[in-house]
Structures are given as C-alpha cells and as structure tokens.
Amino acid sequence: MSTSDDPEILAPDTSAYGEPLGEHLGIESAPSVRVRLLNKGFFAATRVSFPAANFGLTKPLPAEDAFIVSLQFRETRPSELWFAGRRLRSTPAGARSMAIFDLNAETSVDIRDPFDTLLMYVPRSALVAVSEELGSFSPVDLALSPGCAVQDPVVAHLGASLLPLIEAPCPVSDLLVDHVAAGLCLHLVQNYGTRRRTSPSAPTQITNVQLQRAKELLRAHLDGRILLEELARECGLSRAHFSRVFKQSTGQTPHGWLTQQRVAASRDLLANASLSLADVARRCGFANQSHFTRVFAKSEGVAPGAWRRSRRMPYRSSPSSPW
After folding, report:
1. Which of 169, 190, 234, 277 has the highest local Cβ count within 10 Å?
2. Comparing C-alpha atoms, which of 14, 38, 42, 281 is closest to residue 170?
3. pLDDT tens figures, 67-98
C-alpha cells in the first residue's frame, strides 16, 4: 500500500519491499507502506508472516546499497543463515526484537518457526543524509552482526506505529510516515553508525515569518501529503533542525500540530447540517470517517456526531415563560 500515487515518489528498482518482496520470499500477501525520504533515499516497510513451521531457506535479495531492519512480533528459535557466503548461526529472536541486514551482501535464512515480521527498507543514502544534517561523519555501516537479534525499544515503538498504516484501506499521511522514517534513521545513525560522530551544532532558531509559512503550508495540506523536507526547505532549515525548533515554538511535532488543525477545521464544518460526517472527514484530510471519529473523540472527549447534536439543541423556554 503506497502513501501516494505521485510518480515522483515511486520506489527505486528494488525487490526489498511490498509485493515484489512477498513474491521473492514465496508469500502471497505482503502489505507495505512507502515514502520518499530526504530526496536522497526511499523508506519502505513491509509486513510478512507465515503461520506454519519449516518455511525453509529464503532466496537472497539482489545486492543494493541499503539495509533491512527487521522487527519480530513472534519469538523464534536460533536459525542458520548464509551471509556473504559464510554460514552463521542466528541468535534467538524474542518478540519485539530487531536485527539489521546489509543488502550489499547476499543473505539467506533457513526459517524453521512461524513468523510475523516487519521489514523496514532503509537506503544507506538516507542514513548518510541524516548524518550530514547532524554535522557528523557519514556512517559506512551499521554495527550489528547479521543474525544478531537485540531488544531495542525505540525501533520496536517506531515499527509498531507503522502497523496501522500498513493495514489502512486507503492512502495514509506522507507526513506521518516521513516522521517515523526520519526518527528511525536518526536512531540508527546515533546508535549503530560505525563512524565517530562530532557534536551536533545547536538548533537554528525559527523566526515568526518562517513559523507562519510552515503553518500556512500545513493548513494547505490537511491531508498530510507534504513532507518534513518540503516544510524545512521553505524555512531555509535542515529537516532535523526544523523539527526541533517547530516543536520548541509550538509544543507539538508538525504532524501533531496538523492533526489539531484538522480537528479545528472539522468543528467549523460540523456546523453545516448538509455535510455528512464522511464529507467532513474527507474535507479535513482524515483517512476515512472511522479515523475522523477516533481522532476527534480523543481531542474533544466526544464523538463528532454527538458533538454536532449537542450544538443543535433547540431553545426550551422555562415553564413560567408565556412563550
């Protein structure tokens, strides 16, 4: 499932995500979500699962300059894998454990246990771009041995936040996926990048003019089909600095602020009795009526239908009134 049908954000020629990945592994259904990242790479996440034991030996993916970050949702026993022609033994993978595979080297895994896995495709160019934003040396690798599963709560949390987007029946917010992808790349560079890093420079301050421009762009894209990179570029800031100073100024991430604007816009539209809840949801950039109801209720403490009815209560005179 793509976050966009825009031809400019179609994937590179790779078999490492979505249906091509499922076909490569011999799995019929492999839903995915994808988004352009930093204009220098491409992020994608694919969920693959197999309910029975003895799936067998996977085919090696074609070599490319990228990584697969895997997040397991089921516990699995150690298995054998072949990495760059070497036979290795993987470590046990507990539920919500992660592992990193370098696609530059051919890797095959002999899978013996049922599995449910999120495979996050991260090109090296995206990690290099994040490293440069931090004023650091570009990482040449991610320092985690192939087949070594570790507990990483940050990766587990970011990966879990993608699951509802992968299963969503309609296109989702590019901005939200971009936010998750940026957080994952930043975490990988800071915690697994192999090059020594210098101290990042202090965040650039954002002016009122820049902040208002960013807010205007967000309001003009209530559907979320705008990336952090575009917002940052309009403000003349790097994406990492923009995200930090926007939150410092507003108390919210760009996506959180955008969600607040959607709810505010929906309150105005709910006053129009001729619009259905589905119409309001669509005009305010929500994925569907169910998504609108969930977000509105969380913000306002009441479902949008009930909120609308409460503001249509007819005037009732007191018993003593002659009217």
Report:
1. 277
2. 281
3. 989 999 988 888 787 777 777 777 778 889 99
